[in-house]
Amino acid sequence: xxxxxxxxxxxxxxxxxxxxxxxxxxxxxxxxxxxxxxxxxxxxxxxxxxxxxxxxxxxxxxxxxxxxxxxxxxxxxxxxxxxxxxxxxxxxxxxxxxxxxxxxxxxxxxxxxxxxxxxxxxxxxxxxxxxxxxxxxxxxxxxxxxxxxxxxxxxxxxxxxxxxxxxxxxxxxxxxxxxxxxxxxxxxxxxxxxxxxxxxxxxxxxxxxxxxxxxxxxxxxxxxxxxxxxxxxxxxxxxxxxxxxxxxxxxxxxxxxxxxxxxxxxxxxxxxxxxxxxxxxxxxxxxxxxxxxxxxxxxxxxxxxxxxxxxxxxxxxxxxxxxxxxxxxxxxxxxxxxxxxxxxxxxxxxxxxxxxxxxxxxxx
Length: 364
Fold this sequence. Notes:
Layout: H1 2-7, H2 9-29, H3 36-40, H4 45-66, H5 73-87, H6 91-115, H7 119-141, H8 148-166, H9 174-197, H10 203-219, H11 222-225, H12 230-254, H13 261-292, H14 303-321, H15 325-354
């Protein structure tokens, strides 16, 4: 516990600060009144979420797994860059921080590939490189929106790579792995196309996301473990909900729906909230203890933020399809509540665990 408090607590606090800022700046974008600092940060909503929060959290997770020292530069740099962005520092300094964090993250992931070359590690490396490329393009163009597709794909491929590792339990056929590789290459190409040509999302990216969702539905072990009990079933339900929203978001991006700002918003947040945050909620009781060095006992209450999250995404998608400001605002608000409830649930479980008698068999 002392080691965690000294080395990792500040990084996690920086990540949570970026998450809170991203959520509040997202509310500001829909016209909901928030403190002025978050209103000013509204233009950097996606940067705070992708680089400030996820860059720090994923970087910290990868650093812990590496058991090396230099990978901790990733969460340190991305966390500080997110804080500087909120503090109103020079955008050049902020971008430089995120770019340096990306370089460290690519180097860390490259070590994973060298140690264990496989499709899933190459997928993780591709995601890491896209995060770096997105921030470099932001620096070159001065437009943070230009980094959005690469940043979103960074998160999608990180999840896909980690899930692919677990499909060995099925096990997948050679054809399915080749198909996965083709889908990943298509996603990478479409993301780069978006970043280099315009800040919009090409239909190819949506089609590729759809293909990935269908692949996951077909080969992920979740379709078997959903019949289990306890945390195993909970994780599987989170995964299946996530794949559903990835499919919906991909379908919206692939069609003509994104001509409308409402419908583009529905497509992007179906993926970024529905898919990615379903994964976060599902894996939190497993991954966070390894990173935070505290137990987070599984409880049925984890279903509460998951249910609220899915309700919010559904409202947001419907608001996008029908161009309803009321539904869209409701969806944004419900999603913010879901994230708040999720953080409260995590803290509640940590406190419950700490209040229990010490288990001498569980030490870090």
